[in-house]
Amino acid sequence: MVLYSIATLLALISVPTSFSSNGNPDLLPPPTTVVNALADTAAKRAFGAPITIDPATAVTVSAAMQDTAKFGQTVLVRGTITDVCMKKGCWLVVTDNAGTMRVTFKDYGFFVPKDSHERTVYLQGVVKREVIEEDVAKHYAEESKNGPKPEEITGPQSVITMVADGVMIVE
Q1: Which CATH architecture has domain 6-170?
Q2: d(CA 134, CA 140)
Q3: What is the pTM of this model?
């Protein structure tokens, strides 16, 4: 687990105080809540590489999914965790209620706690569109707490995913 210094946390506090996500402020906590949580070292958990992108530039899940010009580039995405791999914590599903994206972790190099549901998360990584085979989609469904049933999945699935190299979960 990566521990942040007070100086790093103070650098992360530059989140703007205004908030809007498609006009619905209920989708994610207001930035002042995030700022307060990031300033409290007991209120966040970091995994993988340190977050190096300014949280003020974080985009919502749906914005990351729609901005195909940014596919293949490292971005910082903010959302709410709705599902986590129940076997190891080797993937998670994140949403902003307008978009949903599966996130895996770079080089299978770290995992997140399986009890991370309904937490705000900052994910630094690369977003891409890919096609996953039916057996892979069913495998994800078997490990899921909230996802579709494996028998409901048929054929290859076109999805937008992220491979994260750094994750910060805000309590």
Answers
A1: Beta Barrel (2.40)
A2: 10
A3: 0.71
Q: How many CA atoms lie within 13 A of 39 on its CB side?
A: 10
90 against 39, higher pLDDT: 90
- Structural domain boundaries of the chain? 6-170
Residue 30 and residue 53: Cα distance in Å, rounded?
19
CA distance 1 to 52: 16
**How much is the pLDDT for 43?**
60
Counting beta carbons within 10 angstroms of the beta carbon of residue 126, is it exposed (0 to 12), middle (13 to 18) or buried (19 or more)? Answer: middle
Q: For residue 29, what is the enclosing H or E element?
A: none
| Cβ(42)–Cβ(6) below 8 Å | no
